[in-house]
Amino acid sequence: MTRLPLRDDLRGRTPYGAPQIDVPIRLNTNENSYDVPDEVADAVLDAIREEVRHLNRYPDREFGALREDLAVYLGHDLAAEQVWAGNGSNEVLQHLLQAFGGPGRTALGFTPAYSMHPVIARCTGTAWIDGRRGSGTDERDPFDLTPELAAAQVREHDPDVVFLCSPNNPTGTALGLDVVTAVYRACRGMVVVDEAYAEFAREGTANALTLLSGRERLVVTRTMSKAFALAGARVGYLAADPGVCDALRLVRLPYHLSSLTQAAARAALWYADVLLSTVQVIKIQRDRIVAELPDLGLHPVPSDANFVLFGGLDDAAATWRGLLSRGVLVRDVGLPGYLRVTAGTLEETDGFLDALADTLLDPPGAALSEPAAEEPGPESDAEAGR
Ligand SMILES: *Cc1c(COP(=O)(O)O)cnc(C)c1O
Hints:
Layout: E1 25-26, H1 38-52, H2 64-74, E2 83-86, H3 89-100, E3 106-111, H4 116-123, E4 127-132, H5 147-157, E5 161-165, H6 177-186, E6 190-194, E7 218-223, E8 236-240, H7 242-248, H8 259-270, H9 272-275, H10 277-292, E9 299-300, E10 307-311, H11 316-325, E11 328-329, E12 339-342, H12 346-361, H13 366-372
Parallel strand pairs: 1-11, 3-4, 3-5, 5-6, 6-7
Antiparallel strand pairs: 2-8, 7-8, 9-10, 10-12
Helix pairs in contact: 1-8, 2-8, 3-4, 5-6
The structure holds pyridoxal-5'-phosphate.
Pyridoxal-5'-phosphate (PLP) binds near residues 88, 114, 169, 225 and 231.
C-alpha cells in the first residue's frame, strides 16, 4: 500500500476494525443478541421475493415508500420529506459530511464519542476537532457534557458541523435537550444528534426529534442496527428539515438503497412492535450490569443504551484478554482503565459477569498475554489511537 499513490491524508491511517472473533459470547459491537423472530423473517422474505422479480429495474431512487414508513414510525408529525435513509446510519453521516463538511471545513465532536464520526469526517476531507467532555460536576459520570461546556467549545472553534451523540457511545449516557439547544444557539453550522440508541433510553429521557420544528440546521440520525436487530441489513436514517434532505440528494450515489434493502426495511417496520419487544429485556440486563459491577469494585457509567462502560480496571487490556480466554468478547475503546460491554441475553450477561469475576480474581499473566495479544492486533481501538 505504501508504494501506491494514496491520498496524503490517508497515509498511515488504520481502518475501522472492531475484532470479529468467533467466541460463544460476543458483546463488543452493541448488536441486538436476539435473532429476527420467525414471523418477521417470513414477512421480510415475502417482501424480498416480490422485489426479486423486478431486479431488472433500478430501485425507487427517492425511496418514497420507505421514507413514508420511517416518518410514521418516528411520529412527532414528521413528513416523508423530512426523512432520509442510507445503508446504515454511517452512510447517512457520510452524506451529511459530503454536503455540509468537506475540504476547508471543520467538524467538532466531544470525545470520547462514536469513533466513526472523526473517521467519516476525515474521509470526506473535513478537518476534525476533538472537543472535550467531563465538566467535573457529575460524580457518577466523568464524561458528562453540560450545556455550558459544549457551547463554549462551539463558540471557540466555530465549526461547520457539530456531532452530539445521545445516548453517547461509548459512555452510554443520554444528553439533556438543554445541551442540544445550547449548541444549536452557539453554532452557525449543522448540528447532528446521533441517536443510534434512542430506543434504549431510560424512562423520561427526551429525544431531539421534539426540537426539529423551527430548527433547519438540526439533524437527528437513527438506525435499524441496534434496537431493531437488523445490523446485517444496513439501514440507517435521519429526520431533519426537508431542505436538508434535498441537499443530501446532491451527494448520494444514484439508487444507493437497493430495492431489496428498501423492501426488507419496510417489512421490518411493519413489525416494529415485535422487533422492539427485545428492548425491554435488554434494558433489564443493562440495568443489572450497572447494579452488579460495583460489587466487583468497578465503576459503571449510567447507561441509556444497550451497553455499559465501566472503569476501575488496573489494566483494561489484560482484563479484555482474560475475558476473551473465557469465551467473552467485549470492547476495549482505548480509554485507560475502562471496557465497554453490550447488554445481551440473560445467559450472556450471566456469562459475562461470571467471566469478569473470575478474571479479576485470576488475571492473565505475562505468559497468556503473548498469544492473546495477536487478537486485537493493529485493528484494536486502542492501537488506532482512540
Ligand atoms: C452503532 C452506531 C451507529 C450505527 O451505525 P449503522 O451504520 O447504522 O449500523 C451509529 N452511531 C452510533 C453512535 C453507533 O454506536
